[in-house]
Design brief:
232 residues, alpha+beta, SH3 type barrels, 3 domains, five-stranded antiparallel beta sheet, 20% strand, elongated
């Protein structure tokens, strides 16, 4: 597509107009944006006053349309590397047949920790027995190191409406009804499936996960990880 490229349009009287190719109508009318007339011998850029926001050329007046600095073979080129010198023709039948329907995948290399790597920077520095800092410990550390005191309340009183317990028949009935509804939800198949997914991380393990070697498999360095990718 030439849309967005600089083109020149020559009309019947010999005049040449240059601008950004916008579109071509079903009637073969050419539309240029930011167009200007090219003066003979002009080498400098046109001034703002010379530019016209939009010009439309009817088919019967157009003699020739020339695209400037356009690589007409761009759509059939690809890269076999990461720099322009590795241009290859990757869309022809001959080029496609080289792959024989298969695309080579990169072989992943295990990451090796340096001998002087700080232990607390490793992913399993805690031995894999912890899911992170305890919230109370985190708050104490922030207060001790930075003097920041947290207003966190585990009851979430600032975000939820707190229920006042009452020793009445109506309150006990509402509490029992709420408990029954909660039990029904937790016994439902959908709820149990969601909980199992969160607890066992089945979806992550199946489709994109970092698998850590077991400490009991005698598999060597525990700081090696294997990325697994799959698709449905």
């Amino acid at each position: 597509s030439l849309q967005g490229n600089v083109v020149q349009v020559q009309v019947k009287d010999g005049s040449i107009y240059e601008g950004v190719f916008r579109t071509m109508s079903p009637k073969m009318e050419v539309v240029l944006e930011l167009a200007h007339k090219v003066e003979v011998g002009q080498t400098s850029l046109p001034s703002r006053d010379q530019l016209q926001e939009k010009l439309i050329f009817h088919q019967e007046n157009v003699v020739m349309l020339t695209a400037l600095d356009v690589d007409l073979d761009y759509a059939t080129k690809g890269y076999s590397g990461f720099s322009p010198e590795f241009f290859t023709d990757s869309f022809t039948d001959a080029a496609i047949s080289k792959f024989n329907g298969q695309i080579a995948e990169k072989e992943l290399q295990p990451w090796e920790a340096d001998s002087d790597q700080a232990p607390d920077l490793l992913l399993d520095a805690d031995g894999g027995t912890s899911n992170g800092w305890d919230a109370a410990e985190m708050f104490r550390t922030n207060e001790k190191r930075y003097g920041v005191q947290s207003s966190y309340d585990s009851s979430l009183a600032g975000y939820t409406t707190q229920l006042k317990e009452e020793d009445t028949k109506e309150y006990r009935e509402k509490r029992d009804r709420a408990q029954r509804i909660a039990d029904e939800i937790e016994r439902s198949t959908d709820y149990q499936r969601r909980v199992a997914l969160e607890v066992h991380d089945d979806e992550e393990a199946a489709f994109s996960a970092v698998h850590r070697p077991s400490r009991n498999d005698g598999g060597g360095d525990l700081h090696k990880y294997v990325l697994k990718f799959d698709s449905k």
